[in-house]
Amino acid sequence: MLSCKQDRRVEKIKENIVKTEVDTLTVYNNVLNDLIENRLYYRYLGRKWELLFLDLTRNKIDSTAYLKGINTLKDEVVKNDSLKGILYVDGVFDGYKEEIRLLDLAKDNSFDLEEVKLQIKKKNFYAVNSFKSNFVKFKKLRNPDSDKRKDEFEVGGISFSKIVFNEGKDLGIMYFSFVCGEKCGEGSLALIKKVNGKWKVEEINALWKI
Questions:
Q1: What's the whole-model pTM score?
Q2: Please, are residues 189 and 197 in contact by the beta-carbon 8 Å criterion?
Q3: How far apart are CA 190 and CA 129, in angstroms?
């Protein structure tokens, strides 16, 4: 009888372990695609988006027409690989080493502040070909012009740290930086959240912008 109870306890422990395991690569891919689609200035939509934005700023179209145009461009990019720009992933990036002052994200969600500071100073070790996207082509950041076709455009360059998760494994914090030109880019802490089985960016706390 005691043995049966022990067996049930062991099974319960195993179930809890399975529930709290996190497929970190899936998290990175979910978050990267959310960032690309919604947070990185629509750079992945290319020149057509720039023209659409100009029409908006010049009052040639209203916000409703602008958003409709954005969704049309998204559909075109998803369906046609030749329209996808290149997002370079910095494989040399070795974490964010500066002192972190803006840790409101961690404080508000009961993260271990020291653990957050430690993890965002570390790099992730996934190869570039591990990342998948419907919106861009990922390439390793080395000589950007060496393997780019004439008809391809650059979305920018991105780097990101390791992720620290909360105890429930439904929230996480990571650092990412995105550079899209001499006067275009940011480095931010991202609070990420698991929603309906998929990881999304819940909040961003900018550490620097250009």
A1: 0.80
A2: no
A3: 23
HEC-encoded secondary structure of the chain: CHHHHHHHHHHHHHHHHHHHCCCHHHHHHHHHHHHHHHCCCCHHHHHHHHHHHHHHHCCCCCHHHHHHHHHHHHHHHHHCHHHCEEEEECCCCCCCCCCCCCCHHHHHCCCCHHHHHHHCCCECCCCHHHCCCCCEEEEECCCCCCCCCCCCCEEEEEEEECCEECCCCCEEEEEEEEEEECCEEEEEEEEEEEECCEEEEEEEEEEEEC
Q: Can you tell me the distance from the alpha carbon of 184 to that of 187, in angstroms, rounded to the nearest whole number?
A: 11
Report the C-alpha gap between 207 and 98 in whole angstroms: 10
CA dihedral defined by 54, 59, 63, 65, rounded to 10 degrees?
A: -80
Which residues does 1 contact at the CB level (< 8 Å), separation at least 6?
Answer: none
In order of 93, 190, 203, the CA distances from 124 in angstroms are 9, 15, 21
pLDDT digits (tens, 9 = 90+) for 49-86: 999 999 999 999 999 999 999 999 999 999 999 999 99
pLDDT tens-digit profile of 112-154?
778 888 888 887 778 888 999 999 999 987 655 555 566 678 9
